[in-house]
Design a protein that fits this description.
By secondary structure, the protein is of the alpha+beta class. The chain folds into two domains: 38 residues; 32 residues, no CATH class. Strands 1-2 form a two-stranded antiparallel sheet. It has two helices and two strands. The N and C termini lie far apart (111 Å). Helices cover 33% and strands 14% of the residues.
Length: 99
């Protein structure tokens, strides 16, 4: 007989006793999945996903002007680069003094 000499009967009892571990792991994973799903669907404010409050108003927009002045020895030349109000870049060679 197999059960007297420690053959297959002992092994089947050992495997049957370890099934509780599988059930515990399944139960823990199920409960964890439930709570993670509940948290993901809740309305917790998270700034990383766009639930932050709106930015405060910036105020009144005002026109500004910038004056460029190039100085140096009279009659010498200089290269100037600037952006016009329309967004066009101007790269020019001018004689000093220049405004």
């Amino acid at each position: 007989m197999s059960d007297v000499d420690g053959g297959p009967m002992k092994k089947s009892v050992a495997y049957a006793g370890s099934w509780w571990i599988v059930w515990v792991v399944i139960a823990v994973m199920s409960v964890s999945a439930f709570y993670v799903g509940k948290l993901r669907l809740s309305e917790i404010p998270d700034r990383a996903i766009g639930h932050s409050p709106a930015a405060p108003e910036a105020g009144v927009v005002r026109d500004k002007s910038i004056e460029y002045v190039v100085t140096g020895p009279a009659g010498s030349s200089a290269r100037v680069s600037y952006i016009e109000p329309g967004g066009r870049v101007v790269d020019d060679k001018v004689s000093v003094p220049w405004r």
